[in-house]
Amino acid sequence: MANNLLKGKRGIIFGALNDMSIAWQVALKAHEEGAEFVLTNAPIAMRMGAINELAEKTNSLVIPADATSLEDLENLFSKAMEHLGGKIDFVLHSIGMSPNVRKGKHYTDIDYKFYNQTLDISAGSLHKTLATAHKMDALNEWGSVVALTYIAAQRIFPDYNDMADAKSLLESITRSFGYHYGIKKKVRVNTISQSPTVTTAGQGIKGFDEFINFSDQMSPLGNASAEACADYCVAMFSDLTRYVTMQNLFHDGGFSNTGVTQPVIEKFGNIE
Ligand code: NAI
């Protein structure tokens, strides 16, 4: 049910690769809620993904940008402002990639060139996005920037590998930039820490299918879906959450505050 929560707002949505992507769902919901936005992804992802289909559905323009390139980001913000007719009100950072995970490198034996790429793509890109917007004064006052993260930033999930380090950095950038941008322009910056979700990035993690079931049973409300995450993002972009900033917001059905649940403990009943 749409409530025009984002009517009159202009946005930039990073990271919609295909219809499983969390960013894809955010774009659909933001459109339903009356927002106008630009879609962006890495030039290479344009060829693999179905972003043009989403652009058609949401009546939006696609502007390719590698989120690790300052030049691409500057071009993105200036073209987006030109196309949308003014400064930007919301940004979704929905970007994650680890070459170490992709190549099956163990955390104790990672390739450091890959490691730098993981940190740059999955976390540094948020700093670069915010720094570009800040320099260009591209965001409106009370604008809202949301990046997606995972609880492996706080606790060890062994197969999440170096993405855990990237997510810790992402959450730290959120706090630090949230402070500076808040003081300067009342722009808010938050992360949403989402349940494991079946997407292209998610499925790259070893043992993901078993893990997603475990997480579901460890969450009093069950795993949160991509659609539900999109609803939360829309709430964070709206004026109903104006004083929320510099936070890591768990959207995980209660997983983060659960020690154990009955269905999980019962699985250990027959162990000698
Ligand atoms: P996805 O694979 O659909 O999205 C990842 C996106 O990052 C893709 O669109 C990809 O093209 C983009 N990307 C990679 N390198 C890029 C670059 N250099 N420049 C610009 N874009 C680039 O997967 P998903 O799951 O929707 O991921 C979105 C975010 O949600 C990521 O930050 C991920 O870590 C986070 N997240 C995902 C969870 C899951 O279980 N799927 C759980 C918690 C957080």
TrEMBL record:
Its EC number is 1.3.1.9. Pfam families: adh_short_C2. Gene3D superfamilies: NAD(P)-binding Rossmann-like Domain. It catalyses: a 2,3-saturated acyl-[ACP] + NAD(+) = a (2E)-enoyl-[ACP] + NADH + H(+). Pathway: Lipid metabolism; fatty acid biosynthesis. Belongs to the short-chain dehydrogenases/reductases (SDR) family. FabI subfamily. This is Enoyl-[acyl-carrier-protein] reductase [NADH]. The lineage of its organism: Bacteria, Pseudomonadati, Bacteroidota, Flavobacteriia, Flavobacteriales.
